[in-house]
């Protein structure tokens, strides 16, 4: 959640069953859901778009996603992960604004640059949030999809997808590593030590770390390599 001074930006809307909890959590930290202006999606998986239409109807916020992953939202392609997660598919919808690489969203004191970072999905976005902290400019970044579960040979084969997504993912990690970032935001809470950062903030310490972004991307490449090595080992075992 980003408070821009001119309204709120929510990045991803969670599972449908989380809707009430999300709204109540906003209120608990002093944010009014009525101030939501933008619902920005990192990618089109079920657990990231599950409350989009509900929150849009509630607040009038405009919805944003990459042009490519909008095809997941509107059901053109069946890659939402609803089936894999054990849930019924969402009713199809189109987002209001469809992004191509390099699109920028501005609201209040915040400028959000959206970069295509394919691999996890073809239309995954990495977002660079240029804003202010205690009067000084800072850049926060979130890679919108770093899991390898949608790049396994089994998953790709099941859906008739190319393994080219793996190298596209790797190339994206290398390209994005050139960005200067002050704070890393995780697309899932376990990707960026969310609880540890909160504890540091509560202790009066800084959660900024200009080296974390590159370390994080390198760690994700290592996870990709480990998956590829394990698949190769299994294939050798089947020979």
In words, what does this structure look like?
By secondary structure, the protein is α/β, with parallel strands linked by helices. It contains 9 helices and 10 strands. Strands 1-2-3-4-5 form a 5-stranded mixed beta sheet. Strands 6-7-8-9-10 form a 5-stranded mixed beta sheet, with helices on one face. Strand 6 and strand 7 form a beta hairpin. The chain starts with a strand and ends with a helix.
Please outline the helices and strands.
Blueprint: E1 2-3, E2 8-11, H1 19-28, E3 36-40, H2 46-49, H3 52-59, E4 62-66, H4 70-73, H5 82-85, E5 97-99, E6 103-107, E7 110-116, E8 125-133, E9 136-143, H6 153-158, H7 164-176, E10 183-184, H8 194-202, H9 212-238
Helix pairs in contact: 7-9
List keywords for this structure.
5-stranded mixed β-sheet, 21% strand, alpha/beta, 9 helices, 239 residues
CATH third-level topology: Metallo-beta-lactamase, Chain A
Total DSSP E strands: 10
- Gyration radius (Cα, Å) is 18 Å
Assign the CATH architecture.
4-Layer Sandwich
The tally of helices reads 9
Helix content: 25-40%
Provide mean pLDDT, rounded. Answer: 96
Going across the major beta sheet, what is the strand order?
A: 1-2-3-4-5
Please state the overall shape, judged from the principal axes of the Cα atoms: globular
Q: Determine and state the CATH class.
A: Alpha Beta
What percent of residues are in strands? Answer: 15-25%
SSE class: alpha/beta
Low-confidence stretches: none
Q: Summarize the helix and strand pattern as letters.
A: EEHEHHEHHEEEEEHHEHH
Distance between the termini: 50 Å
Largest beta-sheet details: 5 strands, mixed
Q: What oligomeric assembly is this protein in?
A: single chain
Give the number of domains: 1
């Amino acid at each position: 959640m980003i408070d821009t001074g001119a309204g709120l930006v929510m990045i991803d809307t969670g599972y449908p069953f989380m809707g009430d909890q999300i709204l109540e959590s906003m209120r608990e930290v002093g944010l009014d859901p009525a101030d939501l202006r933008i619902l920005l999606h990192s990618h089109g998986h079920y657990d990231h778009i599950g409350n989009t239409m509900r929150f849009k109807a509630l607040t009038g916020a405009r919805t944003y996603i990459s042009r490519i992953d909008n095809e997941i939202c509107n059901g053109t392609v069946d890659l939402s992960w609803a089936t894999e997660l054990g849930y019924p598919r969402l009713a199809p919808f189109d987002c209001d604004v469809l992004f191509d690489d390099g699109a920028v969203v501005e609201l209040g004191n915040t400028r959000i640059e959206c970069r295509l970072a394919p691999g996890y999905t073809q239309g995954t976005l990495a977002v660079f949030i240029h804003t202010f902290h205690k009067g000084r400019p800072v850049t926060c970044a979130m890679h919108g999809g770093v899991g390898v579960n949608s790049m396994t040979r089994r998953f790709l084969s099941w859906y008739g997808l190319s393994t080219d997504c793996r190298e596209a993912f790797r190339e994206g990690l290398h390209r994005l590593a050139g960005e200067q970032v002050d704070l890393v935001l995780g697309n899932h809470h376990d990707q960026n030590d969310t609880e540890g950062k909160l504890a540091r903030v509560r202790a009066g310490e800084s959660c900024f770390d200009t080296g974390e972004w590159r370390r994080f991307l390198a760690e994700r490449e290592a996870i990709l390599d480990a998956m590829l090595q394990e698949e190769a080992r299994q294939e050798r075992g089947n020979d």
